[in-house]
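can u pls check wat happens w/ pyridoxal-5'-phosphate
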Amino acid sequence: MINDHNWKPSNAEEYYGLKRWGSGHFTVNADGFLEVHPLRDSRSICIYDIVREALDKGYELPLTIRIQDLLRTRVVELNEHFAKAIVEESYSGVYRGVFPIKVNQLREVVEEIQDAGEPFHYGLECGSKPELVIALAMHKDSQALIVCNGYKDDEFIRLALSGRRLGKEIYLVVEQLSEVPRIIRLSKEMGVEPLIGFRMKLSTMGEGKWASSSGEDAKFGLTSPEILDAARRLKRAKMGSALKLIHFHIGSQVPNIQTIKRATIEATRYYCELYKLGFPVQLIDVGGGLGIDYDGSRSNYESSMNYTLREYARDIVYHIKTVCQEASVPQPDIVSESGRAVVAAHSILVTEVCDRISKTSVTPKLSGKNQHNPVLRELESILLNEHNSSDLERFHDAQQKKESADNLFNLGYLDLKQKALADALYWKICRELSEAGKSARYTPEELESLPTDMADQYVCNFSVFQSLIDHWACGQLFPVVPLHRLEEYPSVDATLVDITCDSEGKISSFTDVEDIRNTLRLHEPNGKPYYLGFCLVGAYQDIMGDLHNLFGRVNEVHVFLEDDEEDGFFIEDSIRGFSINDVLGFTQYDGKVLTRMMKNQIDRATKADQIKPREGTRMLEKFTEVLKGHTYLAR
Ligand SMILES: *Cc1c(COP(=O)(O)O)cnc(C)c1O
């Protein structure tokens, strides 16, 4: 049995699941610090060191850390796995991936992805006008694609077509039938030959949390009659030759490889049929959906995936090839739009535990036989187990006495002091029973939830709504790991709560191999800062987070491996989170106006001799200082 005597850093690796979800990027060093291996080799960065350096530079927590080399690794791996699958299957097309900007729009992220993807002519995907603006301007490699998905108005289409004039291979993917006449009209108007793709509304349903992106009720894509209709319209407008690409996207984080295979086969069938109808289709775009194994269970559970990147690439290549061969149709080039799989792992959110909420924070003072109140005496005797009862019996007795105590208090027969003692005794009994249950081989059903009920809440300086929105919105799990003290036995069962004034701002489900954990083992507070890392948060979270309680964007540092540096890394960029002034601006306040309003009140109070002029000046200075400052808790 593992306990505080024989606990080792390797036990922490095991407990926090680093080997499972970390896919070779995360380890614990001999001193108990969490390390990241951006290239999956022996070069590593201690995340605690990054936090210390960020703090030295004045970047307070919460802090988003981007490991830029890890991002590069993912881009390279995706491209290499497809290239390899193509060689292994003797496939005659090539892989031409694009990064979907919506998954992480940050300029530095997009730039890094483009830079790492340059040797592979890795392109960009956009789904809105702002994203198209990014894609057009950032795209420089004429051999890399731009794929335009999403709902499009005239302006969107015109802008995309202007990209054609610049020689870009930019595809307008038709999501709605109404886009077809529009593309035809605007292309003619501008005298541009468009490149067109059709998004298929496949009957293959996705699986997992984002399954509604696909299936016949999805809001995206064309049904089979619509495809024929759209194709006919293109032909009639003498634009049949523009139809080059077949697209599908069955939803994000597809946990089951069988779904991906089925969708690939179905889409390839459409491809072959359109080819036979005389359209010069030459690309199949398999969309996103490539998962991340957040809990490391390698299962088709929604926070996991039952396949590897290698298997994913091979299955797509193999099935497209097979279907095309059977139909005697040339094999198309393959496009994929993997976002989550590329960016999720590169980013870590660090927060500090700033307080602890515990039901047993106050230890009851026993008065033993001198206790004259019968209910309190009984509770003491249950705590001391004077009757040698079983755990379950003690639990039942304690519950009954607690209920009596509550009633007596409400009726005025117990005073506050006595009520406090009754509660403290009751919680102490529950704590004991819960601890006993943890090491017991068998726990009676009624006692099973005690460890969860008795768990401490660690208050963390961050907002779930800003930084882990998918946990709140759809219960997605992210791995949580302390950045340090991992050589120490984590003795406290805890859940996490954030600093918003919202009871939903909490984390009470955690990743585990077999099941979901309701509590996470963490370290006993020791009076020094204690940092937790939320891992795999690089996809979707940053931009979808909101301003609940006006906390807003957190500080951020971008880290690179660097052999010449003592710690093996350097911080290239840092981005300030929102100041209070910034977030007030979003709700129509103006910091200057608020300051003036404050000044008027202070002036009035000074005139009325309520405060001294010197105090008034200080008050106003403090007010403006807070306005400029960080929204989260300061150290
Ligand atoms: C969101 C989206 C993606 C990205 O999906 P991931 O599962 O994150 O890879 C790709 N294509 C389209 C059309 C999307 O809407």
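The CA atoms of residues 141 and 535 lie 32 Å apart.
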